[in-house]
Amino acid sequence: MSPAPPVIVMGAQRSGTTALASVLDLAFDKAGGIFTVNGKLPYVLHRWVTTADLEARHLRVDEMIWALRRKPPFGTNSERWLATTETVLRAAAVTVSAGEVTDAVRLRRDVLDGAYAGATRFGEKYNEYLLELDALAESLPDAHWVLLIRHPEAVARSTLRWTGDRPWRPPDREAALAKWVAWHEPWLAHPRTADQRLCTVVEYGRLCAGPGLARLGSRLDVDLAPYRELLAESPAPIEATLPAPVRDTWTRLLGQAGL
Question: Which pTM does this prediction carry?
Answer without folding.
Answer: 0.96
